[in-house]
Amino acid sequence: MQHSSGRSAVTTPGAREPIGILLVDDQRTVLRGLELLVESARPVMRVVGTASTAAEALHVCVGMRTDVALVDLDLGMTHGNDLIPELLRLGARRVLVLTGLGDVQAHLEAIIAGAQGVVHKEAAPEMLLKAIAKVHAGELWLDRVATYQLVGMLRRRVAISRVLRTDRRVSNLTRREREIIVAVCSHAGSPAKAIAAMLDITEHTLRNHLTSIYEKLGVATRLELFEFAQRNAIASNTE
């Protein structure tokens, strides 16, 4: 873990503060390369800290002003998507996912978890800096290929939802299971522990309920549950 020790950018009265970047990647060489790249963009942006694990990232985020957290999806034992809502909860203003994965499903899950965009590690340096600036400005950043694939995916889902009526599997759900689905879908970016607390149950009990729900509905992930609930109007109705 490292807090930035470089000299702060010199600003004149009325000038904008540099965009504070938190870098999170489990590969030290990649982390160092990103740090050099961001620091080359002073005074527009600067590195406020680096981390190679989720725990280090959360520690740095508590003590530093983080405008954009650049987070690798593959952090070894921790998936970047699990870290995203925690960083936002601790005050990170934006999260931009950095990934070498071409898995569009993972990209969509990152957006649902709260990320403002996804950029590939193979992207040109100037493109990465542009993505950081755009995300900081509040824009959604996805490269052309990912955008095309995501739009196609969403169109297919809309088409399916138009022709499908309420799935008969919904009738197998108990009222409590419907309540849990509503909570999970309403707080899609929240960790299981936080959702369990909202429902006044333990995380273990929540996971048991979700296992039963997944089996009844034939889904395997929270994203699939979210899609099923939206398609069958469960997320807004517990009757």
Strand content: 5-15%
Count every beta strand, where a strand is a DSSP E run of 2 or more residues.
8
Largest sheet report: 6 strands, mixed
What is the name of the CATH architecture of the largest domain? Answer: 3-Layer(aba) Sandwich
Tell me the count of domains. Answer: 2
Gist of the model:
With 239 residues, the protein is an alpha/beta fold.
Keywords:
alpha/beta; Rossmann fold; Arc Repressor Mutant, subunit A; six-stranded mixed β-sheet
Could you describe the 3D structure shown?
It is a single chain. The chain has helices at 28-39, 54-63, 80-89, 104-113, 125-136, 144-163, 175-186, 192-198, 203-217, 222-231, and strands spanning 2-3, 19-24, 45-51, 68-72, 74-75, 78-79, 94-99, 117-120. By secondary structure, the protein is α/β, with parallel strands linked by helices. It has 2 domains: 2-143, 3-Layer(aba) Sandwich (Rossmann fold); 166-231, Arc Repressor Mutant, subunit A. The strands form 2 sheets. The protein has a 6-stranded mixed beta sheet with strand order 1-3-2-4-7-8, with helices on both faces. It has a two-stranded antiparallel ribbon with strand order 5-6. Strand 7, helix 4 (104-113) and strand 8 (117-120) form a beta-alpha-beta unit. Helix 3 runs parallel beside helix 4 (104-113). It is globular. The relative contact order is 0.10. Mean pLDDT is 83; it is low at 5-14.
